[in-house]
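I would like you to sit down with the pair of lines that follows and say whether tokens and residues agree.
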Amino acid sequence: MTDVAAALRDAAQRLAGVSDTPRLDAELLMAHALDVERQALLLDPSRFEAPTGFVSLVERRMKHEPIAYIVGYRDFWTIRLAVGAGALIPRPDSETLIEAAARHFGDRAPGHVLDLGTGPGTLLLAALAEWPRATGLGIDASDAALAYARANADALGSADRSEFRVGDWTAGIDGQFDLILCNPPYIAASEALMPDVAGHEPAGALFAGADGLDDYRRIIPDLPRILAPGGLAALEIGHTQHISVRELAETAGFKVACRQDLGGRDRALLLTRA
């Protein structure tokens, strides 16, 4: 076995060519190999010796496999979500939608939540963790993603408050929802992506036609039918899409506000009844 500090230094040097965060990647992989939390590793690395399996994890990362797929999870909002091939990896930017919803409802709580394009249950399960009495429905076109969503609901103790269903956006959905969350594909077909994303994450969860707006054009016109009075629809957008998606929402009769992510980029459009 190898000293952990030395193994981390070597791995970080190797990963510098494939990652913007090579040291963090190395630490996450080492913690996973040791089956400990990263905080425990950093608190006292001298307690550990690098296991032989660490090298194979670094080799996988060298091939641009996302860290979340290698370790099998991604932390999001206040929850940990299992992820893997076929499921879009949760991004910190998407937390903007949950934060905006929490501000919108304040001391109130949404009773019924809809997550369109739920993936591994990302936004729905974060919302159910935020509002323990809420119930929700997650829709996705991918059976693989929904398998992760159901497993995550079980692990988080939310299975009795959530339902996950294969669907095509709002088609076939009845009733109204106090909170509608949606992180649809919004990348233009011609846009180049980082190898980690392009080579591993599901294209169907990323690309949306020539201008990246195809799915907004399908989703937004039907939202008035399923958004409850006093409710909120929060849609994630690409940081250059504010005006285009706002126009679609205003045409559908909504009042629209925009919220920025932690990087100061337009990230969430908040739709309420005008």
In short: Residues 118 and 229 are 23 Å apart (CA to CA). The domain at 90-273 is CATH 3.40.50.150 (Rossmann fold). The radius of gyration is 20 Å. The chain has a mean pLDDT of 96.
